[in-house]
Amino acid sequence: MGFLKEFLDKARNNKGYLGGVVSAYAVMGSQILLQLILVPLYLSTLGKAGFGVLMMVLAFAHFAVVGLNGLQGRGMRVLSETMIGIGPGIGKEQGAMDTIIVFRAIGMIYGIYMGLVGLALIGSFLGPWPILTPGTGLLDQMELIAVVLLGVAYLFSLGRLNVEFLMLMAAKKQVQAYSFFIMSVFLFGAGALTWLSHGGGLVAVMTVFVISNFLSYCAAVGYRQRWFQWDCPSASFALVKQKAAQLVNGEGRKYLVYGGLLALLQIDVLIVGVLGTTKMVADYVLIWKIAEVVIILLWRISESLQPEIIHMDLNKEYDRLSRVFHQGLGAVWFVALVAGIGYGIYGADLVGLWVGPDRVPDDPLSFALAGGAIVWLGTARYSSMFLYALAHMDRLILIIAVELVLKLTLIAFLFPEYGYRANLISINAVYLFGGAVLYPLVSRRVIGQLRLKS
To answer: Which domain holds residue 47?
Structure first.
């Protein structure tokens, strides 16, 4: 009840905070609605094998984006310090613009790099993929190259959109920031439904991704220029190099490491694809997708708090920070337990209502394990976000590194025997044997130390 009172008081006194929370969930709701519509369409037009391949391509794109997002926390903190006038720099306008310029350059370089990595992985591991597409039956090598190039453009466009998102979030304009992601979701949904309904395949889906991100980015730039009335010129290589060195200092490198580790924790679909078959990928996605949606819904709680956590830290409001953490943690645990137990029992029925009973994998144990993962991952993210927003990266990196090593080791040993179940077993085992306690324990200790120092 205390956490609810804190939330209501904050919402009453700060409409932007309430709008930010509602907008964050609106983004998630629009994504869920789109998945509910598109996944059955993917299955009917591409078949299970083609659907599995599409999920692998999107999983690699997600992996790349999560890696880039690791630097966002550093960028948001730098922008927040600049905007409230306590950080280093030569003024709010110039400091913010320098940060945006650097992030644009980093996004472009990173997108090209990950595109080359994707092309190398496809060439070395898979060769010419037998990708099923409507009308043609196979995706030839030229189409495969087109998909990879579109993936580079997708990362580039999303990186540009994320920079504008960072700028608005740091200015505590959460509603406007999230609105451009909602716009992107609806543009993609309209384009994907149209093209898939008329025989489009994987190339069409990736093209729509790029177009929707680009149009949303243009709208975000237009809004930012009107609100800030700042111009964001192009920069010389020397300026980018200088500002990037300032941004990616010792703390910045930690955010990059964190982003890489977090991305590796989320490559389950790619692991199933490399070690198994595309049909196994499809079955795993069908079991995991709704559980993943619930987990991300829980993550939105902590992500929507990130700007507030940073500002409470910068303003030394540690008593309030401690109260929000403890009360929120109890609320997240309650919701996660109800959702996890519910999915463990009724998950197969939910998937049957979604894609049809004949497409549901006959695997009750995996649904139960996915329910357990909802509890562990949903609660751990809440605690880790406080460490992330407070810039206490050393301990967070250590915990995630240990979690990653244990998870991958267990998967390597268990996959030959249990197949995709190995992923779910490893998540539950890591948290049952310490992970569930370690994240909140370290976060509580860090917040307590900050209160003592203040």
So the answer is: 23-264
